[in-house]
Amino acid sequence: MKINEYIESGILEAYVLGAASEAEARELLYLKAKHPEIQDALVDLEIDMERIAENMAIIPPADTWLKIESQLNELAEIPDFESIPIRRQPERKGGEHRKSGQFIDVDASSSHMRVHKIWRWLFIGVFILGKIFLGFAIYFYLENRQLKQEVLKLKTQLERYERQEVDHSDFR
Amino acid sequence: MLKTEPQALIENKQASVRVLYDRHASTLLGYLFEIVKDRNLAEEYLVKIFCDVSQHFNEINWDDTNSWCQLQRFAKNKISQLINSGNLVKDSDIHRFVNPADSHHKYPDLFSEEQHQIFYGVYYYGKSIEEISKELNKTEESTRKALKEAFTIMRNSCEN
């Protein structure tokens, strides 16, 4: 392929204006890397395009930048988190589980540990239930002791009656 | 006090957009005016395009080619979106603007009818060589040649 013919074909103009097909653009990029003449022609063409466009320039009103700036500031108030680079924290053992927030995070260097807020209600529930069971245990213990005493009393009375019965039968 | 990282990023981007604005705003306004033929509307699009450029600043490869060509491509894509969404003009209305008498620059007088149609289609309305060739019932090779001739006319006119 003759490079001059290629440059004169108008493909460079089509490429710079974004009117070339994908195959043409691929071919041009390949040839550009191989032939510095094409690279130079492209640079010249871009400079010419800028000069041509400058010939049709219209100076914008003085407050145009202020309008752009105020719109940019409005947009900046709603940060685009996707565009902000995220610095990942160093991986820790069990780091994947941290996302769920259900596991206890223990820092070995500290005497304190952080737990999920739900544990507070669980601890309160367990404490209340413990108190209820303790109350029942004391109640049944006292009840049991009283019943034992009554059984003992009844036994004593029964023995006394049995003895009286024996005495009566002997007397007859 | 040290600025937080997102704030610094926003300010750097804004400063870069300001540099682009200082360098190319008037050129871009002239370009937009040729498309919409309404000064207020062109100014409105100028503001919109620079805001969009700021939002997509990091996605544009500014090193690959000169900044005007990148900005023009970005504006052309934006205008094509507006045309397709019906916010600007319908494709059928474009020919209304292809009338040389409507243009405020001197080049259309030097163009043939065909060169004019090809140049406007590609330069202002982002049509591909394939599309224009089909519209004008020409081969792609001859369409590219006509585009090159139109550029040569413009280049020579600029030099004179």
In short:
Chain A has 172 residues and is mainly α. Helices cover 65% and strands 2% of the residues of chain A. In chain A, strand 1 and strand 2 (113-114) form a beta hairpin.
Structural account:
The complex is a heterodimer of chains A (172) and B (160). In chain A, 65% of the residues lie in helices and 2% in strands. Chain A folds into two domains: 3-56, no CATH class; 101-172. Chain A contains six helices and two strands. Chain A has a two-stranded antiparallel sheet with strand order 1-2. Chain A has 172 residues and is mainly α. Residues 94-101 of chain A have low confidence and may be disordered. In chain A, strand 1 (105-106) and strand 2 (113-114) form a beta hairpin. Chain B is mostly helical. Chain B has two domains: 5-89, Orthogonal Bundle (Rna Polymerase Sigma Factor, Chain: A), CATH 1.10.1740; 92-159, Arc Repressor Mutant, subunit A. Chain B contains seven helices and no strands. The radius of gyration of chain B is 18 Å and the shape is globular. Chain B has helices spanning 5-36, 39-55, 67-84, 94-97, 113-123, 129-136, 140-159. In chain B, helix 1 (5-36) crosses helix 3 (67-84), helix 5 crosses helix 7 (140-159) and helix 6 packs across helix 7. Chain B starts with a helix and ends with a helix. Chain A: The chain crosses the membrane at residues 121-142. Chain A: Keywords: Membrane, Transmembrane, Transmembrane helix. Chain B: This is DNA-directed RNA polymerase specialized sigma24 family protein. Chain B: Keywords: DNA-directed RNA polymerase, Transcription. Chain B: One of its GO terms (cellular component) is DNA-directed RNA polymerase complex. Chain B: Residues 112-155 form the RNA polymerase sigma-70 region domain.
